[in-house]
Amino acid sequence: MIGADAGVQCSSAGCGAAATWRVNWRNPRIHSADRVKVWLACDAHRDTLADYLGTRGFPVLVSPFGEPVDAVPDARA
Ligand SMILES: [Zn+2]
Predict the structure, then answer these.
(1) By C-alpha distance, which of 15, 17, 22, 23 is closest to 5?
(2) Burial class of residue 4 (count of CB atoms within 10 Å of its CB; 0-12, 13-18, 19+)
(3) Ligand 1: distance of its center to the CA of 71 in Å?
(4) Which end of the chain has fewer beta carbons closer than 10 Å to its terminal beta carbon, N or C?
């Protein structure tokens, strides 16, 4: 078991580290503006996951694990 928050792990494949960040995103083609998908990330994978989504053209908003967001604004101007 890892700490008290077992089950709250980084979403990166094969990573079992405790998540400390929320990578909030959505796919504008299938998700409405008020829809928020969340990947959980450890310190090491926060940027990796955010960059992966960003390169696919998805709006991404990274927030601390304890701070959920209500919406992910359109990025890419
Ligand atoms: Zn990780």
Answers:
(1) 17
(2) exposed
(3) 24
(4) C
For residue 73, the CA-to-ligand 1 centroid distance in Å is: 25
Kindly report whether the global pTM for this prediction surpasses the value 0.90.
no
Report the separation in Å between the CA atom of 9 and the middle of ligand 1, taken as the mean of its atom positions: 8
User: What's the rounded Cα separation, in Å, for the pair 11 and 30?
Assistant: 21
Span 58-74, pLDDT tens digits: 999 999 999 999 999 88
Distance of CA 60 to the CA centre of its chain: 8
